[in-house]
Request: fold
Amino acid sequence: NESIRGKFPIKWTAPEVLRQSIFTSKSDCWSFGILLWEIYSFGRIPYPRIPIQDVIRHIEQGYRMEPPEHCPLQISHLMSACWELEPTARPSFAEIVNKLKRFIGY
Reply:
């Protein structure tokens, strides 16, 4: 597990990948939620003020980043859904696309 920490961008990687090297579309969903946060925060680094070695522990204890200032509520809800600790509770990418299409009125 220590070798994984040196090879993965911890702040963008789903907890199950960091703990058990389980890669699925649901772990990609987690990372997509982080990407959304970055976009709506205008490029800030995720988990500001949390040392990198503490990020996983915070996540497993239920901590999630606050939505960026002026982030639309629908996007905030989507981020939260992407960050469910249980991978099966996260949306599929088809669901994400549908939510984003509804959000932009497509």
Confidence is low (pLDDT under 50) at residues 1-5. Residues 57 and 71 are 26 Å apart (CA to CA). The longest helix spans residues 25-40. Residues 2-104 form a domain with the Transferase(Phosphotransferase); domain 1 fold (CATH 1.10.510.10).
